[in-house]
Amino acid sequence: MVIDRAGLAEFLRRRRESLQPEDVGLARGARRRTSGLRREEVAMLCHMSADYYSRLERERGPQPSEQMLASIAQGLHLSLAERDHLFRLAGHHPPARGATGEHISPGMLRVFDRLGDTPAEIVTELGETLRQTPMGVALTGDTTRYTGPARSLGYRWFTDPGYRRLYAPEDHHYLSRVYVAGSREVATLRGPDSRAARLVGLLLERSAEFRELWEAHEVGLKPDGGKRLDHPALGRLDLECQTLVDPVQSHLLLVYTAVPGSETHEKLRLLAAVDPVDPTRAVDPVVTAAARTDAVDA
User: Which residues are in the HTH cro/C1-type domain (predicted)?
Assistant: First the structure.
């Protein structure tokens, strides 16, 4: 396929001008004159330089890669139809849709963009994290950094013993059963040639616990809606998990909250001060001391 530079530039300009800052989780500012987003804002959302993005709108620069186009599609909050059109304009075949796709729908992104002060994440049906809010990173660490099979939470659960330390020990066995039952259901739904089936094959090879639970043929097990975490800085957290499902892409938006007035609710106020790189320490030493005191008292 051949790139349509003029068509690509016009499409990008129109989509940028149609978006407002609040549509993508940005502050408008008092002296704003631009009707839509600025090129610099789009570049930031797409994780690229402003110069690179500007050249695309000016019909210049190299042909963008598929990875770059995927970032642009998410940054501009494109629908699946718009994403596919973008790829074709740029001279590429569109990615697959459905359960194997990682393009997050505009509607789910709009909800996610408004959760900046709440622990939340968007995951695939295999438990692969696509997006986290800053508070989500402070709660569970950066789970978008994993590659290969380790991107799946279930795979990490059975192959990395240290990963379980974040979860209450009394819940480990039931969570193991939930992950195995869920893996069976997704692998059966997607078929023997699916990524889900390949992931099951890897776990059967590498985890004796997974093999033992797999033999039980359990299905239909679900988390009870609560999540008990042992946070390295804040101690025990008793959270509720609300889920929003995208039926087309099989993505889940998970939002973690606590009962108002509860001890966990008060601890979550300290979560913004936790260092996302090292959750055992906080950004502000005063807050660090308070967090550790609460953790001990818990």
Answer: 36-83
* List of long-range contacts for 43-52, beta carbons under 8 Å, 24+ apart: 45/74, 45/75, 45/76, 46/71, 46/72, 46/74, 46/75, 46/76, 47/71, 47/75, 48/72
Domain with CATH 3.30.450.180 in the chain: 107-297
CATH number for region 5-95: 1.10.260.40
3-state SS track over 242-272: EEEEECCCCEEEEEEECCCCCHHHHHHCCHH
185-240 residue pLDDT tens? 999 999 999 999 999 999 999 999 999 999 999 999 988 778 999 999 899 999 99
The CATH number of 107-297, from 3.30.450.180, 3.30.70.20, 3.40.50.2000, 3.40.50.300, is 3.30.450.180
Q: Which two tokens stand for residue 197?
A: 């089936």
